[in-house]
Amino acid sequence: MRALFFDRFGDPDVLRVVERPDPVAGPDEAVVAVTAASVNPSDVKNVAGRMEGTVLPRIPGRDFAGIVVDGPADWIDAEVWGTGGDIGFTRDGSHAELLLVPAAALVRKPERLGFAEASVVGVNFVIGWLGAVETARLAAGETIAVFGVSGGVGGAVAQIARLLGARVIGLDRTNPDRTPAASAIDEFIALDGDSEEIGGRVRRLTAGRGADVVYDSVGGVTTAAALAAVAPRGRIVVISAVGTRTATIDLIDFYHNETRLLGADSRKLDVVESARRLAYLNPHFESGAFRPLPITRAYDLEQGGEAYRALADGTRGRVVLQNSTFHRSGGSR
């Protein structure tokens, strides 16, 4: 099979397209012919050596959608999708023609989504669900402020929160127009002021109280604003750190407000645990309640290094690798 491959950390130039042995399913395993696989910011960071626990040499890639070609008989030819905090890090990933996964990681792709659309869901919606639902316990009637709402994770959180019956305030440098988040938010705040000003805007929209939950999908440069925006006894979920990995907290304000500061990490969910979350999400994609972020650029697997470079250079939206050989066989919608 053809695959992207790296045996040292660095910029996207360290990636090579190579021939690797075709994986063969053993007991309780399956092989997926990867039709489409998104390139996430965490994939770029992984190749750069900025993620923990990666074992080299490695095929990168976390998210995928494709067709089962080897494994349990009742799964052969099934259209599946997936993601995982292990694939691309400690087991070979999805930026290849074939992917070996545990059979327990198989979950059927929503029929409503094509392969490319399905391939951009995994990381964004799994961490969105993990942070908002499992970690923050967001409830109907609460208000959530979503930092980074125009991005993949923020857009996923906005849609999840809307489904739960929460009021959604979106915050970002750019307006989420033309993204699925646009119809999921009640109010939008541009991140164009200092932290206290941004927190004040959230409080003005919540009768001075602040947001019950603040989902900070940016982190670092937005931490102070997140703290300024949270309600008494409110919960802040942090999944990232942009610009700086440290933050200064006024501990007296922090404990007087009884703020809950929570971390959520999708890397802790392997491909099997992630599949369980995707199974929860599947009906909402089938119904149209959830929609993936639009795809910005699509590349053939042979152009994998270019795809990584585009994302590293700041391309917004979703970048996808497609297996052109499988496309010619008629396997994709």
From TrEMBL:
Keywords: NADP. SMART domains: PKS_ER. Gene3D superfamilies: Medium-chain alcohol dehydrogenases, catalytic domain. It comes from the Bacteria. InterPro entries: ADH-like_C, ADH-like_N, ER, GroES-like_sf, NAD(P)-bd_dom_sf, Zinc-ADH_QOR/CCCR. Residues 10-321 form the Enoyl reductase (ER) domain. One of its GO terms (molecular function) is oxidoreductase activity. This is Zinc-binding dehydrogenase.
